[in-house]
Amino acid sequence: MTEIVETITGASTEALRAARDQASADLVELRLDGVASVDVAGALEGRRTPVIVTCRPTWEGGRFDGSEDERFRILNDAIRHGAEYVDVEWKADRKGLVPLGRTALVLSTHDFDGLPADLDDRIRAMRREPAAIVKVAVMPARLADCLTLRRAMQAPPGRQIAIAMGPRGQITRLCPWLFESAWTYGGTAAPGQVAARDLADLYRVRTGTTKTTVYGITGNPLGHSASPAMHNPGLAAAGLDAIYVPFETDDADDFLTVAEALGVAGASVTAPHKPAIFKRTATTDALSRRVGALNTLRRTSSGWEGRNFDAAGFLAPLDRRGVALSGIRAVVLGAGGAARTTAWALHDRGARVELTARRAERAAALATELGVETTAWPPAPGWDLLVNTTPVGTWPEVDASPIEAGRVRGRLIYDLIYNPRETRLLREARAAGSETIDGLEMLVSQACLQFEWWTGIPAPRDAFMDAADSFVRHRQRQTS
Q1: Given 50, 221, 334, 443, which is the most exposed site by the fewest CB atoms within 10 A?
Q2: What pTM was estimated for this model as a whole?
């Protein structure tokens, strides 16, 4: 079982102890370098969980700016008081360290600027030291740097922790078994750390093994994405030994290289990679070929297979309501990528599609390409279906609406925005007597279609919807 370490900081010993006692991880890393007038005995007294005592100096990314003598006095106090582990830097002069006794040594090195040129030599030198754990943390410039770290840590073997920091190193934290790490760190003390509770409950890191199937999402940026928050509960609800992780990168080939090396079974594809990965995928569906982009990959014995579930995800909420699209007047607000998919899907179902945007020339160009009509901005009331594909009204600009309330008159309004679920546009539509559909329904529908294509079993839609709704509410609380 992979253990979870929760990194704890505090301005005082009392604050550190309080945070320590609230932790729910397997081990607690007590970061003493940020504690004023630290009482080491007090920090350790009464602990219910094994601890790793760390006093990281500023020269290795920490907050301790005193002398090395003072720093080693703190570490030696931790050893004398029976700390389970102490973390000491490989670059430090460890002659001042007292005999370890029952305490085990974590010998660590951190590079916040990239992969050190002497990475292989450094790891070999560290393995020659009498340490219980060799910990190496680097800052990757690309996803493939995680593979470089993995290769460097594989030979010679030994008990270890391999961490690639920042958003491009998430795979090392969320799938530590792929890097033969004894544990993974959770918290907020280092770039890219994930909350310890999320490691346990959302990503189920403790139960992951080399047999665990890995899915993910690739694009940039991914910090806003609801996909991990949806897919992981969905996989858990279905009883599957699988995990869904972010692969943030600017380069589609960078993702494909890592996905091949780590055996990723499937992936959601988002901006800016949809066109680039489409060009690199041998087998695609008709919609992907029509729009020149895909949003889902699946590994097969003959290579990557691609699908575009954007249109199907958009149509699913309409189909569930039994909305007949043939012959209706459907107005699409916007002229971007979402408008393209939306207009194509509606036109394919026989709707009379009218595109409109503040930049009329963009709407006209897209309408010509798709073979649909344009209409003035803002559109005249009297439509059967109005679809908002613009970002106007997205959190936190919740008081904005793409069109005036007086023009919100029609049978059905569908807003692709999912944060918040009820936008101003939808509130005004409901007040005017219109039926409404929010963007979270489309998001969940797309995720369920991806899940079913990957796994071959029905998606637990309620689990996806509950998780997505909780994610949106949590993000709103975070930014309030």
Answers
A1: 221
A2: 0.93
Nearest to 410 by CA among 305, 311, 328: 328
Q: Whole-angstrom Cα distance, residue 162 to residue 175?
A: 11
Model pLDDT for residues 91-136, shown as the tens digit of each residue: 999 999 999 999 999 999 999 999 999 999 999 999 999 999 999 9
Q: Which pLDDT band, with edges at 50, 70 and 90, does 290 fall under?
A: confident
- Residue 57 tokens read as 């100096």
Where is 181: in which H helix or E strand?
none
The CA distance from 386 to 412, in Å, is 6
Q: What SS3 class is residue 139?
A: coil
Write the DSSP assignment of 324-369 as a string of letters. --TT-EEEEE--SHHHHHHHHHHHHTT-EEEEE-SSHHHHHHHHHH
In this structure, which amino acid lies at residue 19? A
Rounded to an integer, the average pLDDT of 452-469 is 97
Q: Which residues are catalytic?
A: 274
* Pairwise CA distance, residues 480 & 474, whole Å: 10
| CA distance linking residue 213 with residue 215, whole number of Å | 7
> Is the pLDDT score of 155 beyond 80?
no
| Residue 236 Cα distances to 8, 205, 228, 241, 456, angstroms | 28, 12, 12, 8, 15
**Phi and psi torsions of 234, nearest 5°:** -65, -45
Q: How far is CA 447 from CA 148, 265, 319, 390, 450, in A?
A: 32, 15, 16, 21, 5
| Predicted pLDDT at 480 | 66
**259 Cβ contact partners less than 8 Å away, ≥ 6 residues apart:** 216, 218, 247, 267, 297, 299
CB 4, CB 199: distance < 8 Å: yes
